[in-house]
Amino acid sequence: MARQKHDERLHDRKFVRTFFTSPTAVEGEEDSATMIRSAAGLSGMQAPDVWVPDNEDATAPSMRDEGARNIIEVVSEEGADFPGEIHPRIVWFRGDPGTRHQCLTHLMEIADPDNGAIQHIDGFVIPEVGDIDDWKKADEVLTIVENEYDLEEGEIAMSVIVESGAAELAMGELRDEMGKPTNNLERLFMLVIGEVDYTKDMRAITPTGNLPSWPEVRHNTSRAASAAGLISVDGPYDDIRDVEGYRERMVDNQAKGLLGIWSLTPGQVVEANTNPLPPETSRWRMDTGGRTVDLEDDDGVQVYDGNRVSLEESDDEYTLRVGGDEQVLDEEDLREELLGIVEYVPSMDDIVDSMEEFEEAREGGTGAIAMERATTVRIDGVEVEVSNDRMWDEATYQAAMTPVSLFQDVYEHRPDQHDELAEMYSEDVVERAMDVGGA
């Protein structure tokens, strides 16, 4: 594997939206591989970017040998047609040599080219890692397997589940350790948060028994992935009926650069596949005092219809109430106040328009341009025009490129989603989005 700077992505996939696990062996079923057989047939928005046949926590210990055989059977038969990457999770534990030996045994069986599965497997997910020396042990096991079967060293990607304080601290050492001739840690692909076991390892307690939110772990994982050229993935959201909560978690994650998330059901896969993509349509929204609501478009006028914000006009003054706060303002001050609570969410078409406009100006020798956003806001029948200018320079352009780069990566690697993406955005917008940024 070529040595590269570690803040550059080292794998073909630059983004992973979805990390979907399914048990490798289900006890009591006529076909114990029924769950992974079903998952292998997913396509389009229901198919994850990374599928994880889970031979660890999702599979009973007594079924794991059978689970390894099921991985071989299903992946050898279905793997060539699966549209995402395949990264089985296998057993490992930082404090148990017997479990690590079982990992080697299963790897040897699954990776044997004569069994027909490794040709379709992109990597393996290693759980329960500890300090950086433990990461190196897992890497060495994969190197042994590669040498056993005449595979190129580093060919098999390795992702880890961050489930302990030791693993969290180890992430800070990756930049110094990756690339040393004594390891193949450049095979690392994803850093995945395992917050249940992390909570256990930290001996954390909450009054309700629910998991802590661990925002620091999510930030640290995203930062470590950025510094080492890896991909960060948040842990499972186990309330599978709470779709809105799942969406809120993703939005919060995305503001940290944590663009991938664990998915437990095909329904969560659909949500996680679509959520980080740029919106289909633009919208205006308002902060109503701790709660953000979308405004309704009425023939170009953005209408607030609620009871948390009110506006009254009297002569040349306006009384604006937001939550429990009340202000008496003139027209100019009112516009400024509304600009502080009203914001614009651009669609994919808008983002591409702005990028094309900046690229054209840059080619003409202009380094910065102003982009205006204007609308009319109606509150309690009172209409106020608001507008602002945002300066676009090279840094702004590069920041705006992230969601478009994600889209381009999806479009390149997931042809099974092309029709759904064209339906979302239109063929014209898709074509233009693929052209900006020199894609």
Beta-strand fraction estimate: 15-25%
Helix content: 25-40%
Strand count: 18
Q: Radius of gyration, rounded?
A: 25 Å
Q: Which consecutive residue ranges, at least 5 long each, have pLDDT under 50?
A: none
The CATH level-2 architecture of the largest domain is identified as Alpha-Beta Barrel
Class inferred from helices and paired strands: alpha/beta
Across the major sheet, the strand order is: 3-2-1-8-7-6-5-4
The 3D shape can be described as elongated
Largest β-sheet summary: 8 strands, parallel
Structure overview:
With 439 residues, the protein is α/β, with parallel strands linked by helices. It has 2 domains: 257 residues, TIM Barrel; 114 residues, no CATH class. It has 15 helices and 18 strands. It has an 8-stranded parallel sheet.
Topology summary:
Elements: E1 18-23, H1 34-40, E2 50-54, H2 64-78, E3 85-86, H3 97-111, E4 123-126, H4 132-148, E5 157-162, H5 165-171, H6 174-177, E6 188-193, H7 195-202, H8 215-228, E7 231-234, H9 243-254, E8 260-263, H10 266-274, E9 283-287, E10 292-294, E11 296-298, E12 301-304, E13 309-314, E14 317-322, E15 325-329, H11 331-341, E16 342-345, H12 348-363, E17 369-379, E18 382-392, H13 394-413, H14 418-425, H15 427-435
Parallel strand pairs: 1-2, 1-8, 2-3, 4-5, 5-6, 6-7, 7-8, 12-17
Antiparallel strand pairs: 9-10, 9-16, 11-12, 13-14, 14-15, 17-18
Helix pairs in contact: 3-4, 12-13, 14-15
